[in-house]
Amino acid sequence: MKKLLFVFLILNVLTPWIQATELWEASYGKLLKKYVYHDGVDYQLWKNNPQDMEELNKLVESLALKTTVTREPHTRLAYLINTYNILVLKGVLDMYPVKSVRDIAPEFGFFHEKRFIFEGTPVSLNHVEKDLLLKTFKDPHIHFAVNCASISCPPLLNEPYTASKVMIQLESVTRTFLEQNPEAVRLEKNRYLLSSLFSWYAADFATQGSVLNFINRYRKQPLPPNAKIEYLDYNWNLNQSSVRK
Fold it and tell me: What is the pTM (predicted TM-score) of this model?
């Protein structure tokens, strides 16, 4: 009886939070389906829709609240990835039209400045990515899920990350980027040009053996062990979709 009562009390506490999370994910999911394509985000269409701009503002306001978010790892991981991506979208759309996130603030201030409130505390995008996500979860797949609104960044997934699917989603976006995207791997004149992500975050990928080992896990045609490696210049131009053009 005591065990049943304990289970009931836990469910009674968690159910409102789960329901709120599902509503939050549904709202975010509708926006993603509407404006996110394989080649980027239709910022212009989104900016011109006051109702959807307000919907995004409500999501950002909900992130600012001091809420008791479950610490269950998969739930927290999905929530933080979504948080980062929502805040990037908010930051770009507030200033749109811009050609690049670098135009929003000097010296990459878009990422360094505490421009947002998250769980009651002023935060920068770098804090969410590097401290809350990477230092906590130590999973290099995160680099392919967080989107910096730039052409060279792994594309934004057009659905929310969810607790039940987050590990599958991380594997999927990693494989898609490394297998299909020219901003990830290019063969040019007997050398392989890799995304600068593999240079900037080499230590993160080293936990998987090496950068090359990590990449080859996701490619049908693996890079040879003696491959000559160089790194691509990062294209910080806005990942504006051209699907409607």
Answer: 0.91
